């Protein structure tokens, strides 16, 4: 399965068949107010299809470490955004700041707490004062169905957390963190957590 998902087309087909890509679209629609002129940075952008669901006129930048995904994104959506095959590191944070919204769709559960602390520090740097980190991941919760738990146990990501785990890792970098559990986003039964982490507004002198 992992080898098959290296194909941008097969990856997107799998995401759409299970309703997981649709979950991203639904979460963005529910929680984000994205308007033309806003600067959006997408870490783990994959083949880039999410840009189709963003307003025309946003300044979109996508990062992914899979070259085939970035090649596909650039060829299909290069007129809507810029795509880079590289880690989102401190240099990139300095280069692209200030950003209004950073998106990490299906990314946090692939990264250990220690590594994620570095990534989130870079996210905090790239955001403008008052900017927002938006994340969407699978989430364990008490009382969830056996099938939903099985789906999470067998996810490609090795760091699926419960709500407290996500709050802990986000809260080490961001003072204000809101988490929202959703179970009706996808065709297959799945427990999602939407994360909203806010960078503090800059205080006036």
From TrEMBL:
A Pfam match: Methyltransf_12
Annotated keywords: Methyltransferase, Transferase
Record InterPro entries: Methyltransf_12 (IPR013217), SAM-dependent_MTases_sf (IPR029063)
Example of a GO biological process term: methylation
Record carries keyword Methyltransferase: yes
UniProt entry tagged with the keyword Cell membrane: no
Annotated Methyltransferase type domain residues: 41-133
CDD domains the UniProt entry points to: AdoMet_MTases
One Gene Ontology term of the molecular function aspect: methyltransferase activity
Protein name: Class I SAM-dependent methyltransferase
Organism this protein belongs to: Phyllobacterium sophorae
């Amino acid at each position: 399965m992992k080898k098959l998902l290296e194909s941008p087309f097969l990856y997107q087909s799998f995401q759409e068949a299970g309703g997981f890509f649709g979950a991203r679209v639904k979460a963005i629609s529910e929680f984000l107010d994205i308007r033309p002129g806003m600067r959006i940075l997408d870490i783990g952008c994959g083949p880039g299809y999410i840009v189709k669901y963003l307003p025309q006129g946003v300044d979109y930048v996508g990062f992914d470490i899979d070259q085939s995904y970035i090649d596909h994104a650039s060829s299909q959506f290069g007129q809507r955004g810029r795509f880079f095959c590289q880690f989102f590191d401190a240099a990139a944070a300095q280069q692209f700041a200030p950003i209004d919204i950073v998106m990490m769709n299906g990314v946090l559960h692939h990264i250990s707490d220690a590594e994620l602390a570095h990534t989130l520090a870079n996210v905090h740097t790239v955001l403008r004062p008052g900017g927002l980190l938006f994340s969407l991941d699978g989430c364990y919760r008490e009382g969830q169905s056996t099938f939903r738990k099985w789906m999470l146990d067998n996810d490609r990501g090795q760091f699926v957390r419960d709500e407290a785990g996500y709050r802990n890792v986000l809260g080490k970098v961001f003072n204000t963190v809101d988490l929202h559990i959703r179970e009706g986003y996808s065709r297959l039964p799945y427990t999602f957590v939407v994360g909203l982490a806010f960078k503090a507004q800059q205080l006036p002198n």
